[in-house]
Amino acid sequence: MADNIGNKIRKLFDFQRFEKEPGLQDVIEDSLNNVAGVRRLTETELENAAGGVRIGNDMNNVGKAQTGVGTISNKRKCECGGDIRLLSGGRGVCVNCNKTFYDL
Amino acid sequence: MDIEQVYKDYHDKVLNYIRSKVGNPEDAEDICSDVFLKVQKKLMDYDEEKASVSTWVYTIARNAVIDHYRTRRVAEEIPEELASDDEVDNELLNKETLSELAEALKKLSEEEREVIILHYYEGLSLKDIEQRTGLSYGQVKLRHNSALKELKKLFSGETAKGTFRIV
After folding, report:
1. Which among B20, B106, B133 is the nearest to A35, CB-wise?
2. Under CATH, which number does the domain B95-163 receive?
């Protein structure tokens, strides 16, 4: 049963490599970026890059989730100085050096 | 439907798809040319009631890649997603089902979604995923199995449009 659904998903993903349906492509890329620990910048962050990173619409809202970007921890930073992007289950990943944290 | 329009609409998709399967860029170009020669030959027989143009062209491209692996003396194995002898399921392969898959994946936990995408899209083994994510093999396997179970439930559920047909 599990093999059957697995094979069907494999076929769909193969078709996705051809069709590149945008909604599914976003889900795939978000997930792969998450694994790589890469933080996708929102337009707001890109606009504010010169003046430092603005998280969300309010500088006081560090820690709140944003569309397309994982929540950035407002409690800890990595030893390398990078922000830690929060994952579920108390885990996090440094967006700079990809170090994974398990005790957040 | 004319060949020029099909070529214009699908050439890049076909070439990118083939490049994702075949290492050598020159081979990819050759196979892509073969695909459109076949499309041109078979255009008169195309039946839009059996499959969308996209699915039809994809099937020709997919089969061309499989033929490449089978007839050439290439060292690498045929990719797993092409190794099955199953016929391409025209009912399964359409944009709507891809959207439905996206929605179903969003309902999984982040960790389950990662395992599914790494295994079925990226083609990593569960062992490779263990190394990539830092999880134990047991955790990866658990998430894989629980994700598949959840996806099976989601895909056999009812939607506003009707029952999913993936299972």
Report:
1. B133
2. 1.10.10.10
